[in-house]
Amino acid sequence: xxxxxxxxxxxxxxxxxxxxxxxxxxxxxxxxxxxxxxxxxxxxxxxxxxxxxxxxxxxxxxxxxxxxxxxxxxxxxxxxxxxxxxxxxxxxxxxxxxxxxxxxxxxxxxxxxxxxxxxxxxxxxxxxxxxxxxxxxxxxxxxxxxxxxxxxxxxxxxxxxxxxxxxxxxxxxxxxxxxxxxxxxxxxxxxxxxxxxxxxxxxxxxxxxxxxxxxxxxxxxxxxxxxxxxxxxxxxxxxxxxxxxxxxxxxxxxxxxxxxxxxxxxxxxxxxxxxxxxxxxxxxxxxxxxxxxxxxxxxxxxxxxxxxxxxxxxxxxxxxxxxxxxxxxxxxxxxxxxxxxxxxxxxxxxxxxxxxxxxxxxxxxxxxxxxxxxxxxxxxxxxxxxxxxxxxxxxxxxxxxxxxxxxxxxxxxxxxxxxxxxxxxxxxxxxxxxxxxxxxxxxxxxxxxxxxxxxxxxxxxxxxxxxxxxxxxxxxxxxxxxxxxxxxxxxxxxxxxxxxxxxxxxxxxxxxxxxxxxxxxx
Length: 522
Hints:
Layout: H1 2-7, H2 10-23, H3 27-51, H4 61-66, H5 68-97, E1 112-113, E2 116-117, H6 119-137, H7 140-168, H8 179-182, H9 188-196, H10 199-203, H11 207-211, H12 219-248, H13 251-257, H14 267-274, H15 278-312, H16 331-347, H17 351-366, H18 368-379, H19 392-409, H20 414-423, H21 426-435, H22 441-464, H23 479-497, H24 503-513
Antiparallel strand pairs: 1-2
Helix pairs in contact: 2-9, 2-12, 3-9, 3-12, 3-18, 3-19, 5-6, 5-15, 5-16, 5-17, 6-15, 6-16, 7-12, 7-15, 14-15, 15-16, 17-19, 17-20, 18-19, 18-23, 19-22, 19-23, 22-23
């Protein structure tokens, strides 16, 4: 329920609308592709998460296999995506609130002005971020009870939308009567929508379970089960919502404006009003408050644990990793994340801008998972593996390639901008490496070189790639995909070959000894 509560957030409120603007009815395929990409990546992390169940685990696996530098890059990229999730959910809630139709709520209309956050809108977003933080300030038990309740509500409203919209307006002809009508903008936007329309972002929350591994009962069983069930349910809900959105719009509206010309401020609520479902629009306005609220609370928890985990990696100030003696929560990390989240709202004051940043930075962090899981097969064949995927030798390189393609789909210059943000963390790394006396830094650099070169590679390919993805068209579509695939496989092999057994690997052995396993393969 914690994972599902995080998965069904603002993605369902905006994703279907944004995806059809980019790809038309073919956006339904974009959701399938997004689910496959994240599913393949999650398969790798279930093995890692059950091997090393610990708070903020996503920030540590690369460090175990490749040393401090790669561990820092992965942790920093993941942390950037997580703190951006807190303001994006706040913006989603405020944007829907700004169109509340009730007479007593006219004061919310000032939150947005000409499609942009107003001063009062910024204040409202800041208030939500503060509430998300405070709900996490007091114990995991309170967080779990809150998100479990919210999750039930978050599933019920989308289900009601699917049923009522279908009964009120069902136009299957909106899918088109030819390939051209189904894919009015071609095939390339189908892939682009997975990243730029927030589809990858919508599925990203599976890592909530991984990052709270040490606080989950029976992690050897419940980590994999929680991820599989929540991703499966979320995929079905998102596909049905996308199809419902496509078939509910009046064909005359599409004929007049085209899919890219349909503009909503509160997509599903506005559509409910057009269909005469006023009572449902009220529920949607309420859910637009509740769904992002539940997701924001979940990710305030995840982001704080990720930052605290970076402290244990010895590359952040120690006060950020201090746990409260009574509640066991990293309170200072929560406060710092809240402040940075408010700054991000000023820099990226829209849902779509933050969605692209989150998707790209997350994917870069995810690239280390497939490399680490196969490196551990080589480095520690006898380690306890409650989940040992039989398909892992195949799934690991596939997940790496899919993550690379999805990063490329974010389009230039987003890929470069995110990589620059990730590079901003390197001064922290080298500052603390110097304070530590550069312990094993040479090995860490040698073992991380593949990632540093990879970031240059994907930036260059994004710049020189096809015009469909904002490149210079040196590599025409779809041959640009071939270049990314071949290059990614080479970097994957390089990454697996350069792992080494350092002190972080030895420390991980102690944690792995505590794992419960029945030694069965999955």
